[in-house]
Amino acid sequence: MTVNSFEKGGDGGGPSACDGHFHSNKDHWVALPPATFDHNSNCFRKLKISARGKSTVATVIDECAKPCKDDIVDASESVWKALGVHRGISCDTFNNVTVVDLTGASISGNLTSAICALSNLTALTLQRKAFTGPSPIGLLHCKHLHKLDLSSTNFAGTLPTCISELSKLRILKLPNNSFSGSIPPAFRMVAKLEALFFHENSLSGEFPNFFGELKSLKNLTFDNNPLRPGVLPVGSIRVLRRGGLNQNSR
């Protein structure tokens, strides 16, 4: 089970697939992988979820964004709380730290590259933190990251041009920050990207056409940025949110 936001402006992408609306994270919602969601056939189904001797019931309201394994359920924060499951640190069978999720922890100040000393770290989530300073260049030393979630972390400045150093990155979430400037061409070099969330920033310039070159990219959001219209990617990419491109560009 992974945590997911179902609220507007959250890291979950667009409105829920079942009813086209956003929903409060204070209620029990889940998003199912595509194979189980089965083209909306399981919408509003009640699921019993159990963990650590506790159980709760949640309602299916969405399809989780790819990449999403068939045995994974995205759940709202209230589901986690009801089950008494705390996010934090996960290790592999050799006790190497592989996942760090500090959502909800009271952390602020500058973010350095020290966390990248965890050489087996593959997923880092730092949602809703009061960090200061420009874009977190130091995290580019975390070479093995598959997922980086910096949603609502108060970062500002331009996007790092050396993003291509994270060659294994599959999921990048940067919504609800103050990133500005253009989207650097270096993003075309992150060939394994499957999900990229840019919404609710201050990115400008022309919407880049190189996203169509990313053959693994399945989900893309960029609404509420003052981007000028460009060539939207076609094919297998699911453009979840693009309203800002039309509303804010002139």
The CATH class of the largest domain = Alpha Beta
Please report the distance between the alpha carbons of the first and last residues. 42 Å
* Secondary-structure content class: mainly beta
Q: So, the CATH homologous superfamily of the largest domain?
A: Ribonuclease Inhibitor
CATH architecture of the largest domain: Alpha-Beta Horseshoe
In this structure, how is the largest beta sheet organized?
8 strands, mixed
When the domains are counted, the total is 2
Task: Summarize the helices and strands and which ones pair or pack.
Elements: E1 2-3, E2 29-32, H1 34-37, E3 46-51, E4 54-63, E5 74-75, H2 77-83, E6 89-91, E7 97-101, E8 108-109, E9 123-125, E10 130-131, E11 147-149, E12 156-158, E13 171-173, E14 178-181, E15 195-197, E16 202-203, E17 205-206, E18 219-221, E19 227-228, E20 238-241, H3 243-248
Parallel strand pairs: 1-5, 2-4, 7-9, 8-10, 9-11, 11-13, 12-14, 13-15, 14-16, 15-18, 17-19, 18-20
Antiparallel strand pairs: 2-5, 3-4, 6-7
